[in-house]
Amino acid sequence: xxxxxxxxxxxxxxxxxxxxxxxxxxxxxxxxxxxxxxxxxxxxxxxxxxxxxxxxxxxxxxxxxxxxxxxxxxxxxxxxxxxxxxxxxxxxxxxxxxxxxxxxxxxxxxxxxxxxxxxxxxxxxxxxxxxxxxxxxxxxxxxxxxxxxxxxxxxxxxxxxxxxxxxxxxxxxxxxxxxxxxxxxxxxxxxxxxxxxxxxxxxxxxxxxxxxxxxxxxxxxxxxxxxxxxxxxxxxxxxxxxxxxxxxxxxxxxxxxxxxxxxxxxxxxxxxxxxxxxx
Length: 279
Fold this sequence. Notes:
The chain is an alpha+beta fold. Helices cover 19% and strands 35% of the residues.
């Protein structure tokens, strides 16, 4: 048999920035080095690694989690639950539009969290039914009690516009409400996002984000130092000692929470103990 020890801890996301980007005919551009490409943009699968950072520029959630772990309004202004925690109501933000120009309403929430979209394999399988009460209020009916807003703050379960799919329900393009819009992607090379000028919040000062896929961490550092990148994500901690005092480079650390585990094969341990004569 196997036993597992679960370790919950705080991880540090390391970002290095050099300079302030560049000015082009398209305006201010920031070039960002990431280790992994976005292999999926749709509901059924959350992308791996650094590509999650790209997702969070395009898509937004109903609830947001601040750096000090407080839950605050996102696309939902407020929420409340029944006494048994099986019914949740969300009051949606008005005057928000998707990147394709369509309005953000309860219809988009139902589209995004319907079991037909996400299936039954995630923690959201407890959602039994979603109903609209007007254009800007939705009601979630759950099969069991759960703190639904906590889950809906995760970028793995954002709001996607119904315009993401065609008439047959096939995904065609990423449509969100975020500060940047999808422009193009070259597989395993580059993803380009452009400023959403109709963003409901503070419109970005940056006009374009160019995410360069550079799997090797050392190569990302070299590209940063040479000026080919303005920012790089998730670099080795050992690099900070060399770079932290280098002129023109700034190191940013962002604390993130996640759970990891170490698994032990106890059968192997038993066999080794026998060979060593241990009891």
